[in-house]
Amino acid sequence: MAKSIDVSDLNIYYGDFLAVQGVNMTIKARAVTAFIGPSGCGKSTFLRSLNRMHEVIPGARVEGKVVVDGQSLYGPSVDPVAVRRQIGMVFQRPNPFPTMSIYDNVLAGNKLNAKRMKRAEADAIVEKSLRSANLWNEVKDRLGKPGMGLSGGQQQRLCIARAIAVEPQVLLMDEPCSALDPISTSAIEDLIHELKTDYTIVIVTHNMQQAARVSDETGFFNLKATGEPGHLVEFNPTKKMFSNPDEPSTEAYISGRFG
Amino acid sequence: MSSTTKEKPLAQEAKPRVVTSVGDRVFAGLTLGASLIILLALASVFIFLLVKGLPGFTKAADVYGPRASSFFGYVSPLLGGTLIAAVIALIIAVPLAWGIALVISHYAPRFIAVPVAYLVDLLAAVPSVVFGLWGVIVLAPQMVPVFEFLNTYLGFIPIFGGDDDVVSKSGRTILTAGVVLAIMILPIITAITREVFSRTPRLNQEAALALGATRWEMMRLTVFPYGRSGMVSATMLGLGRALGETMAVAMVLSLGGWNVNLLGPGNSSIAANIASKYKERSEDLLSVLIATGLVLFLLTFLVNFTARWIVGRSERKMASA
Amino acid sequence: MTDLSKAMSNTPETPGTPPPSRTSVPLTAASLPSVAQLIVGVIGLAVGIFCWLILGWPLIGSAVVGGLVYLVGLPAWSLAVEGKRAATDRMMTGLIWTTFVVAMVPLVSLVYTVIDKGRRAISGDFLTYSLFKTALGQPDGIYHAIMGTLIITLGAAVISIPIGVLAAIHLVEYGKGNRLSRVVTFLVDVMTGIPSIVAGLFAFALFTLLFGPGFQGGIGGSVALSLLMIPIVVRATEEMLRLVPDDLREASYALGTPKWRTIMRVVLPTTIGGIITGITLAVARVIGETAPLLLIAGLADKTNTNPFSGAMSTLPVQIYSFNSQQDTIPLAWGAALVLIVLVLVLNLAARIIGKFFAPKTGH
Predict the structure, then answer these.
(1) Does the residue B97 lie in any domain?
(2) Residue B9 falls inside a structural domain
(3) Which domains does chain C have, with CATH numbers?
(4) What's the pLDDT score for residue A114?
(5) Where are any strands of DSSP class E within chain A?
(6) B23 falls within a domain
(7) Do C194 and B129 touch (CB under 8 A)?
(8) How far apart are CA C208 and CA C216, in angstroms?
(9) Does domain A5-94+168-254 have CATH number 3.40.50.300?
(10) Which of C5, C17, C21 shows the shortest C-beta gap to A26?
(11) Inter-chain CB proximity C28 and A82 less than 8 Å
(12) pLDDT band at C169, cuts 50/70/90?
């Protein structure tokens, strides 16, 4: 039951500094939405505000509305812990828990909630999540080995398996391939294609080819000047974005005449 | 490792020059000499203590008197007192230190965490004699009601009553000494634990939060597993410090014989015993004291060595993973 | 923008999507009002005050009871409303802050007592007279102990700094990973663990052997202290030298500079701030040592500035001695305050030096 996300008039502040200004968009369910834009334009910050992970940074706060399937994320009695359970996240660099085995890494999120899981039940979740992350065949014989022993691409797929093991509605990905080689990157991109049948996926990427390859819709963020807040310039289906964008600055960025 | 391989060819290139350059030879010799002095100093400490202390293991029975007749009988109550005081200190200090370390590294906002960290560092520098002074004059009288409470309600446990069922009126007992030691080692344990806690990779902590962990669950998932070896070695270093500490124990305790009852008078530690007995200036007693010093040295060495081994092992494990 | 994106709402849904098995969990959870902490805190405080004033319990006992009410009450309430996970989180948060408060009590008490009682003892006379009475009614002072501490610590520094710094240079620059440097590194580790009383025993036994039984003198104290100080200096210097990137050394070698000049002109100047900081902290660490000085430097009422002959009082030993007699305890606090101020000044100096010469290489 993947969910769509409605964002209206969202401002994000770090202390007094306005980092992202006035974002309005609707992120569709069961589709891949990509955010592109130059460094420091606030696309990662915006992504984090979709599951309240920005609150980890001291002084960060949000004005405006984010509504997931009719429920506002920033409502008065919303529990950020519940939000993050519903809206999973994958980070720039793979970050499996170093002291845990592959098996325990996948189950880390589930173990937080379940009182006592039956062994068979746990095994089923691990297999299902690893299969969904296209990792099962590579690791099924060494589930007890530490997660840090895998290659970078495998580690990142392990992190994806860990995120989907708790069955979230939405999966946020913050430049998930930026630390990976081309082969691993392509494996992750294939995985994103498969996952979108079941999840709403939002991905931030620096790589425009990647945005063009994996996403259905694309948002372009930009800064007017350094020190100014970032804002959403254009939000359109990816095909239109890369062939016939509405805004000249989008075209300039995409065709590499940025700067 | 890469720096070693990089350095090798340089050293070889420099070699022909060493032959000609007097400066290089003199300088290298000086630094080598300093290293050798350290080697020599430690060797001489050890040999010297061994030579002077060995006779102390086998003296005539009256030297060990009045309470013991052999070295074993002499040292074991002291060793017991040393260990008990150190264990009391650890039981009190370790949970407190972990708590403070978490407050500094994760719970408190920066404007509290920074001054608190600074304060804790300064307290690590307070001389032990000042802790001892505070312990005997301020803390000991305050401990008396606590002792009476423990004796009344938990007196059936031997350590809070014992056979004599006496509660010290001055508060100068080994339990008070243990509390003072706890306060002394608290800053050391806190400083190391705080360091490892704050080195927990940020990405792992964010991963835990993104999975829907509460703050405490995030600690359990990432901060504690990551810092485990650091926490253990900090505890061991604190233990080493508590074992070797002299003045606080010597000042707080009214030294005496072995007593199971932690609330009553009596007990002593190896270090405090040396500090109080060295004045007697008898050659025989001196070698006995040096022998007890050797035992203490061995004990702290083992503790420190274990701490290092644990850290080294976990580093190797992290590296091979 | 919103209208634009809403206009194109033909979701590219893949046919044959498996039926979703996941049920939506509400994002909102029952939670305690934001003033819950305050309410329980006030109740805890009230209970504590009730126990103290009405029941007449001792202050500490009342504080413990009040604290327990808060520590148990808030998680219990949370357990009833928010569930087990949130309750655990609240309980641990409470416990962690409690450890902090509990630990601060003795530390604040210590600092307060030393300042409060020490202030009363300290005067110009206290700092400029010794205990050696040349006239009736001469005030008590600790001048002799201050001088003793300074001389003995200076002696220890003179012995330790060259040995420590040079040995560290040997370990980092010359002995990379060879057998001798591994042995020395290990021994330095062992040395950091020497109990101070054992260092004192060594000096005591050594000087007794050399100069006959009963020898006491400042130099023995310096030797004992340097045993404790050398490992700290080696560690600090080593750590700083390792921060210097190899590129810098290679750049210097490439200019044809011999190794020793590279070390003296390039490596040491880059790290001198850190090394001085480390040395200052090492001095601060040994200046308060008592046990070895008690054994070897002894106690004397008269000011003695010759470390090679006769007993020499130091502040820590003097404090110990003041403490043993009821009527001199106020003097002990005065001496303790002077000693703490000395240590603090050294620590502060170390920090300022560290900031001043902040390593240009960064971490």
Answers:
(1) yes
(2) no
(3) 33-120 (no CATH), 143-356 (1.10.3720.10)
(4) 66
(5) 5-14, 17-27, 32-36, 60-68, 71-72, 87-90, 170-174, 200-204, 217-223, 230-237
(6) no
(7) no
(8) 9
(9) yes
(10) C5
(11) yes
(12) very high
